[in-house]
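Sequence in, structure out. Go.
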Amino acid sequence: AVIHLSGRLTVWSIPSLKQLREWEQIDQPGYDEIKLEWKLSLEKRKKIKDKESFYPLIDINWWAENSVILARCSGALTVSSVKNLKNLLGKSCEWFESAPQVTSAHEGGFLCLECEVKFAPKRLRSEGRPGDEDEGEDDSDSDDEMSAKARYFGYLKQGLYFVTEMERFAPSRKRPRTIIKNYRLVNLRSTTPEELYQRKNYLD
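Output:
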């Protein structure tokens, strides 16, 4: 199974290298799904302005001879049939953090590695290096949200500092953002109803 830069997915026969299946990105079921909590969160919506960057497949592996594990940049994960890419896990996909990585299935299960990225709270960043100036910008602010006038004067100020090296034109130092990354290794297994019932009784 091959992921192309264009978003296309192809399945080939080995060792003959004969192409068996092909799906363009727009033909892949659920390729444009976005996590519901992202749609409801204003902060998340700001970060997913370019939704198309979340659509492509990021990783793929085999669940069985006739089904593949598909992971997308959005965090959506499905176990899909190689005949029609129908999700074998049900109507909805499983959700992880953005760009999860998956292993092939082994003994009825597979591993998924996800990375949760968060910005440290401002109270933690306030203990940064002395002399750093806090411009009062929120973590969700970005250069794209600045006005054209502010960007123009910023570039002009940088040019004057480059030519004169006068401190009055020196750009203000921004406090570095502290990023916290939490990695999780999740095991997804095929479980029968009897096993779920036994597990529930054990936990009770």
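Check: The chain has two domains: 2-117+182-202, 140-174. The longest strand covers residues 109-119.
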